[in-house]
């Protein structure tokens, strides 16, 4: 890990996480999941992979809007991101417990978590099933798990693949021209190996998490948002494996500008996969019928 708590990370996720469409699509998931919590009592709510706190902020505000009494626990492996999240939430009006680590940290919370958010991160995990197992183990019976990602099989809206091809080609062309000494690998990193909604739903079901909601929600992405995601270190590692982060950031910045100009675009629509599941009472691990059928299947609630 190259980042240090307290220092400003130039290649942070934070700028991307302030875009209005990003807040909207995540707010939609957060509010739906928090609405699924029963009123009364004290709740434990976890934001796993909290990054720089965008989701934590939405969770706190949804809990406050429902006047639910809760302890919010935010878990994140990157010390620099965690430090930024603490700053972002300093005036949130609800205490947040901050833990550095990954899903393994959930063991310290026992089996009593009432709601858990794992947003915009699962595509980064190598052993997704093991992470889902640890999440399921931490949940109280009936507890709500909300997971989303825009790196899944089905994320591209029809007719937008051309933009992504041009973006990648433009970034590589810039690198070859300006930095011919940098080898550009063709290997796809883990961030680029995408599962479908159906595969995620099946994986959750196998671990006793019954999917209640599985939707594609569309967001309208601007050039600035592609340039902001293009200077996030984990995105660069996935898109341009092996390329030094500062050069990858520049290449993706130029590539996005060129693709928008050449295709005369103002926005590129993109799907977010939004999943809400509930911990099955008892420790059953069977999974039968419900869930996303495939990446383009209608949402569960549309099929009822
Ligand atoms: C794209 S950011 C998303 C941050 C925040 N959840 C959001 O939706 O705005 C992905 C975050 O997942 C974290 N992450 C990566 N691997 C992880 C793991 N194994 N367990 C938990 N978090 C992880 C990264 O450090 C990063 O902060």
TrEMBL record:
Keyword rRNA-binding tagged: no
Stretches assigned to the Methyltransferase domain: 45-143
Gene3D superfamilies tied to this protein: Vaccinia Virus protein VP39
Matching InterPro entries: Methyltransf_25, SAM-dependent_MTases_sf
Record bears the keyword Methyltransferase: yes
Keywords from the named record: Methyltransferase, Transferase
CDD domains in alphabetical order: AdoMet_MTases (cd02440)
Protein name: Methyltransferase domain-containing protein
Source organism (scientific name): Amycolatopsis vastitatis
């Amino acid at each position: 890990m190259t980042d240090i708590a307290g220092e400003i990370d130039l290649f942070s996720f934070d700028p991307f996480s302030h875009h209005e469409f990003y807040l909207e699509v995540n707010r939609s998931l957060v509010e739906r999941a928090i609405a699924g919590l029963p009123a009364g009592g004290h709740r434990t709510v976890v934001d796993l992979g909290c990054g720089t706190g965008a989701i934590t902020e939405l969770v706190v505000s949804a809990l406050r809007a429902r006047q639910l009494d809760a302890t919010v626990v935010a878990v994140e492996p990157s010390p620099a991101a965690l430090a930024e999240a603490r700053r972002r939430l300093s005036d949130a009006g609800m205490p947040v417990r901050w833990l550095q680590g990954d899903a393994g940290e959930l063991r310290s919370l026992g089996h009593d978590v009432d709601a858990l958010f794992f947003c915009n991160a699962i595509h980064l995990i190598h052993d997704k099933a093991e992470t889902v197992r640890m999440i399921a183990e931490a949940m109280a019976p009936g507890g709500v798990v909300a997971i989303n990602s825009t790196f899944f099989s089905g994320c591209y809206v029809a007719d937008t693949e051309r933009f992504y091809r041009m973006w990648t080609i433009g970034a590589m062309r810039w690198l070859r021209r300006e930095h011919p000494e940098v080898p550009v690998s063709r290997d796809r990193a883990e961030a680029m190996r995408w599962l479908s909604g159906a595969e995620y739903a099946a994986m959750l079901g196998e671990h006793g998490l019954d999917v209640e909601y599985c939707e594609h929600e569309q967001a309208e992405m601007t050039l600035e948002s592609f340039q902001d995601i293009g200077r996030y270190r984990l995105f660069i590692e996935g898109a341009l494996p092996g390329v030094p982060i500062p050069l990858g950031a520049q290449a993706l910045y130029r590539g996005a500008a060129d693709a928008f100009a050449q295709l005369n675009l103002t926005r590129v629509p993109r799907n977010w996969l939004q999943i809400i599941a509930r911990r099955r009472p008892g420790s059953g691990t069977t999974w039968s019928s419900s869930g996303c059928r495939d990446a383009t299947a209608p949402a569960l609630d549309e099929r009822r």
